[in-house]
Amino acid sequence: MDANPSVLIVEDDAVLRHLYQLILELVGYRIWTAPDGVQAWYLIQRHPPSAVLTDVDMPVMDGLTLCHQLKTTAATRHIPVLLMSARPLPLPAVRGVQADGMLGKPFEIPQLTDLLDRVLHRGTAATTA
Q1: Which residue of 12, 44, 104, 109 shows the fewest CB atoms closer than 10 Å?
Q2: Strand, helix or coil at 23?
Q3: What is the pLDDT of residues 79-101, one digit of tens each?
Q4: What whole-number distance in Å separates Cα of residue 47 and Cα of residue 56?
């Protein structure tokens, strides 16, 4: 495993995107960002990250569609995907797109960093409220 794993943050809210970037850079992650799933997919093809942290509700391509695309493409299915949403998502929806974890917004910083640590070092994580 890379000493400083890379995380692609996909979030349409520029303030939140920047906040998540600052937090994760402070704890040692290398960060790329994208405002929607289409731009994220473009970046992933060129620089596959160690993990993807994506909002669910976004314009152009939402996080569920991005996750499904990643998990059904041979070259990217190994990349852990964590979904974030302010609205509750039924567990079958999360499992249906093969997400590796879920964060309910708002969340505490330790919830984010712990979940990322789990998926990057020990495999698939669970849902975090």
Answers
A1: 109
A2: helix
A3: 999 999 888 766 666 666 788 98
A4: 22
pLDDT tens by residue, 16-46:
999 999 999 999 999 999 999 999 999 999 9
* 46, two tokens: 């060129």
pLDDT at 2: 57
Backbone angles phi, psi at 118, to 5 degrees: -65, -45
What token pair was written down for 43?
């970046």
Estimate the share of the chain in helix, then strand, then coil, as percent rounded to the nearest 5.
40, 20, 40
- The pTM assigned to this predicted structure is 0.88
**Residue 16 is encoded by which pair of tokens?**
């939140």
The size of the chain, in residues, is 129
Question: CATH second-level architecture of 6-119?
Answer: 3-Layer(aba) Sandwich (3.40)
Do 62 and 37 touch, CB atoms closer than 8 A?
yes
Rounded Cα gap, residues 61 and 89, in angstroms: 17
